Amino acid sequence: MEKIPNQKAWLLVLPVFAIVAFSAVIPLMTVVNYSVQDTFGNNKFFWNGVGWYQELLDPSTELGGRFFASLWRNLAFSGAVLAIQIPLGIIVALAMPREGWGVAFSLVVLALPLLIPWNVVGTIWQIFGRSDIGLMGWGLNRLGFDYNYVANPIDAWLTIIIMDVWHWSSLVALLCYAGLKSIPEAYYQAASIDGASRWAVFTAIQLPKMRHVLVIAILLRFMDSFMIYTEPFVVTGGGPGNSTTFLSIELVKLALGQFDLGKAAAMSIVYMLIIIIVCWVFFTVMTNAGADRKGAGGER
Amino acid sequence: MENIAWMAWTPATACFFAAIGLILATMIWLAATRPEAERVGILGIPTTRGDRLFLSLVLAAVIHLAWIGFVGSQPIAILPIGEGIELSSLWLATAISLVAAVIVFRTV
User: Fold this and answer.
1) Do residues A252 and A271 touch, judged by C-beta distance below 8 A?
2) Could B7 and A29 be called an inter-chain contact, meaning their C-beta atoms sit closer than 8 Å?
3) Exposed (0-12), middle (13-18) or buried (19+): which is A24, by Cβ within 10 Å?
4) Interface test with B, best of A20, A35, A57 (most B CBs within 10 A)
5) Residue B105 has pLDDT above 60, yes or no
6) Which of A252, A208, A209 lies closest to A230, judged by CA?
7) What keywords are annotated for this sequence in UniProt (chain B) (predicted)?
8) Chain B residues contacting A, CB < 8 Å?
9) Is residue A284 less than 8 Å (CB to CB) from chain B?
10) Do B68 and A39 touch (CB under 8 A)?
11) Cα(A172)–Cα(A178) distance, integer angstroms
12) What is the pLDDT of residue A295?
């Protein structure tokens, strides 16, 4: 039977094209246009070529200095967050019950922080950490620690990292739990017959089986922490000084605080390029994870 | 034109987006006239023509930014048109990007 060509599908995807055009493509084109120009407001623009990019990529200039400082700060934050959340998530997932009423209970408890809106998380920790009325801040000070996240950069960093760990570790735990659940019981039976230790079971069975979900968890947490804005903005506002000013906060300061549209546009393009590359790696790893496993299984 | 004044178009960015649009149109035309199958290249992942175009574009952006960061955009020649149009050294980055794109399309 011959196929009847039907072009109606084009008509049906038209709304999506229109929405994407207005929500993404046209704003993005505008940002590219801004990034090669300078403006003093009133919709008057002056050609600046790649001037902003040159400034942005040169750490000795004001703009470049700010960009690289916030980039390193952001990478340090992502690194710290990953270094805590991934092991913690694995430990929590290993400790979770496998059957009975405890499964549903722990799943709900773990999902709770994930359901709270980001600005509310920020507000919770902003109040929680205050040394006058916050339980944590007040308590730490009563215990003799000189804790004040508004004035001390280290305290501010600790507060934000602990907040992120509180907010997102359960995501890692839930992903690892799903990975653990997919391991057939036969593997554990074989291990117990061989007399394998708890550690050997973890390194030889559980960790390799969790590899793919861990890759997803690491990339997801990296992306999220690299684009973080709301929580540190609410808790510290980027301070004290610039100590917790991450890329997105710096970008908003530049675009909406100083109204330097050209500089901000150049910075967003470079920022977006980094995110696109990480995103591509994320997508490629995710879509090829299954195929990879099949190939590895075939060789054995 | 009044309606899109806020988009702050320039001739250069208009040419840039027109080129991107032309490339996409060519890709659509190619997909319709010469359908292709995925293949596995040096990255060890199956890629289509679109994947390779995406990689080439991202690579081109990285090459241009690296060029701006490490070399700069000093003029290297003056074209004898009108009062003389300065040719930025960035065009060398564009040439490198084109070569990189050809390599990506052949090997990845």
Assistant:
1) no
2) yes
3) exposed
4) A57
5) yes
6) A252
7) Membrane, Transmembrane, Transmembrane helix
8) 5-10, 12-13, 16-17, 45-46, 54-55, 58, 61-62, 65, 68-69, 72-73, 88, 90
9) yes
10) no
11) 10
12) 44
Please indicate whether, in this complex, the C-beta atoms of A26 and B7 are within 8 angstroms of each other.
yes
Judged against a pLDDT cut of 90, whether residue B45 lies above it is answered with no
Domain A70-299 has CATH 3.40.605.10: no
* Spatial distance between the Cα atoms of A10 and A189, rounded to a whole number of angstroms: 54
What is the tens place of the pLDDT at every residue in A51-102? Answer: 889 888 888 988 889 999 999 999 999 999 999 999 999 999 999 888 888 8
Q: Which of residues 116-135 of A touch B (CB under 8 A)?
A: none
Residues of chain A with pLDDT under 70: 1, 289-300
In DSSP notation, chain B reads -GGGGGG---HHHHHHHHHHHHHHHHHHHHHHHS----EE-TTSSEE-HHHHHHHHHHHHHHHHHHHHHHT---EEEEE-STT-EEEETHHHHHHHHHHHHHHHHHH-
Domain ranges in chain B?
Answer: 1-35, 39-108
* Helix A207-226 with A62-95: angle, nearest 10 deg: 150
Residues 192-221 of A with CB under 8 A from B: none
| Nearest-by-Cβ selection for B10 from A36, A50, A54 | A36
Residues of chain B found within 8 Å of residue A58, distances taken between Cβ atoms:
69
pTM: 0.84
Mean pLDDT computed over B6-32: 90
Test the B interface: residue of A20, A29, A48, A268 with most B CBs within 10 Å:
A29
A131-141 pLDDT, tens per residue? 888 899 999 99
pLDDT given for residue A300 in this prediction? 34
pLDDT band at B1 (very low <50, low <70, confident <90, very high): low
Number of neighbours of residue A198 by Cβ within 10 angstroms: 9
Q: Which residues of A touch B62 (CB under 8 A)?
A: 273, 277
pLDDT given at position B89: 85
